[in-house]
Amino acid sequence: MIALSGGCLCDPAQGLWGPADIYIRAGRILAVVPSGSPAPDGAWQVYDCTGRLVVPGPIDTLCRLSPAAEPWREDADTLAAAASSAGYTSLLVYTGSADPDIISGLARVRRPVRLLPVAALSAGDGLCDLGRLAAAGAVAYSDWPEPTSDPLRLRRGLAYAGALGRPVVVHPEDASLAQGGVMHEGSRSFAMGLRGVPGVAEVVAVARDAALQRAFGGRLHFAAVSAAESLPFLGDASASVMAHHLVLTEAAVAGYDTAAKLSPPLRTEADRAALLQAARSGRLLVASGHRPTPPEEKACEYDYAAFGASALETALAVALESLGPEAFVHATSLGPARAFGLDGGTLPPGAPADIAVLDADALWTVRPEAFLSRGRTSPLAGRSVRGRAVLTIVGGEVASGDLDCCIKMH
Amino acid sequence: MALGAHLCDLDDLDAQGITDVLDTAESMAEILARPIPRVPALRGRTVMLLFYEASTRTRHSFELACKALGADSLSLAAATSSVVKGESLIDTVRTARALGADAVVLRHPASGAARLAATLNLLPVINAGDGIHAHPTQALLDVFTVRRRFGRLAGLQLTIVGDILHSRVARSSALAFARMGVKVVLCGPPTVVPPEAGPALGARVCHDLTEALRGADVVMALRIQKERQDRGLLPSAAEYRALWGLDAGRLAAACPGAVLLHPGPVNRGVELAPELLDRPEAAVDSQVRAGVAVRMAVLYMLLEQGAGAA
């Protein structure tokens, strides 16, 4: 039985925002009371959270876990350790797998984070065995990072997955307009001689897919949007933005920096500002978009470099600093729980005790070489960010944390 | 900035840097005019010519420049080296250094490849063309050729006609001329001369050939590649010739005596009417000669005067 005392709880779903004591029993919330109120009966191991921010457990909506088995690669253990250290309590892991055994194996992982497997949507021209995958524990379906290019297949996927109560997650990009681009299309890509992905390649895909969802129902989530012009077309779908896109622009690609080669690409300052505004207003969720790559796939010519960055260990700090506590909880916890129909996002009595305790003022420098993830490239390398997890609690147990920082026995 | 440790693109040169290279190239041109066009300025130095893409004129031009300065050149063509076995560019540059190379001249199909090689800071890197990004020695020889013709650069107008989108020559030349006070106009099919080309290169975009040529002191035609036609960017050679092909009649819109440049090799009868090459305004042969002098200047400055010779 543990208690978190004195932290500043931000739980917008319950309208709670202030110092509170949280009591946890049998993996669930027993009570949340104003700080300093008498403790319920029992022997409590108390963590002093004074001066800390306490939030419902963050859920990452976009995180790659490749089933390939090379030793350098991120596996479920390194992924979970990295996520937990950063404060996440649940991860939607995109496996690209249609194998129920792989899905059920991942779905069993509950420490140090809950892995929520996202299974493949389609194989060849048809749909995967979505029902069997749901039974194995898939919480959603997606072909990310590939775009779902065939509208008829998406229509069928939305209908089929919708009947199973699960969303389809798409990477909105029109492949023909994107024409194999490697950065945002504009005067910078022109000057650098790199093929660009115009913002409109995303806008037409967003508009099309949102229209399909409106017409045929089902639940649709956009894995990550990057263009301001996409925002008016989201329709009834939920959507995420990668944390990198809240603080970086295409300028990060200068000097052919492969660490900034992301998909969707980093775009203009106007796009960044609009995405940030949409995340603050609650229209966009904030995802890590974690997509680790081996070093040799980044230490090469920009055109040949892999897309993606190691993001789990920076995304929450970026989101917290960019959004402030309340919008942060919406974008990283409450919103993801609602969009994917998951437990979590709020801490009423009886809810699973998935909680992050954050030091919102901690200023630190991003050093990818020190990441727990095996992905060691970040476009934020060398930058200072503010906000750090000090304690991550999953199912009422400490999953990771700096115990010296807040332990206090009663 | 003055020419520093590398020459990857026009970011490595400000107006003074360009002027320094051109002035040095004038001295090199004098050497080349001698009965025995040799000096021992770089004797004992080795220049690795690392070509991941086919090239004859640029490679030969660098080889001649090395020879004239007394440097040894070592050619490593992609097809005959471990490059085909998948050795990375970074490892290949390290190998070049280990073999005793004092500089690398790099031609590569990926934009930014020279910058990548330069970030290793093992030895000076000279970009001989990277993807569609930059070809700085070509730009310098164009500027050199024009300065010789006019005795000045500021106040002139350059009109570049062709597939700007896929041309590293156009990018580097537009930037180099603009830096020297030349007004640059870009002209060609809208599919390959997009609006963002203007702000990217400090130039004006104009799709009408006659209007683009008005007031031009220098006209540069670019090679049109069949491959672009196949990708649906250009309808046909006949269409291109009709709208953007240069001939004597069209050129009359430019200033009298306007110099005609072409980076070569020329598709006679597509981007240029064949007879244009025989007119005195055509500077194509001067460009080729200037290429050797300019490359001598760059090699000399990086290897002998360079701050960055590692």
Return the string of H and E elements of chain B: HEHEHEHEHEHEHEHEHHHEH
Number of separate helices of chain B? 12
CATH homolog superfamily of the largest domain in chain B: Aspartate/ornithine carbamoyltransferase
How many domains make up the coordinates of chain B? 2
What fraction of the residues of chain B are assigned to beta strands by DSSP?
A: 5-15%
Top CATH class of the largest domain in chain A: Alpha Beta
What's the assembly state of these chains? heterodimer
Tally of separate domains of chain A: 2
Distance between the termini of chain B: 19 Å
Total DSSP helices of chain A: 12
Derived structural class of chain B: alpha/beta
Please give the share of residues in helix of chain B: 25-40%
* Annotated CATH topology of the largest domain in chain B: Rossmann fold
Number of strands of chain B: 9
Shape of chain B: globular
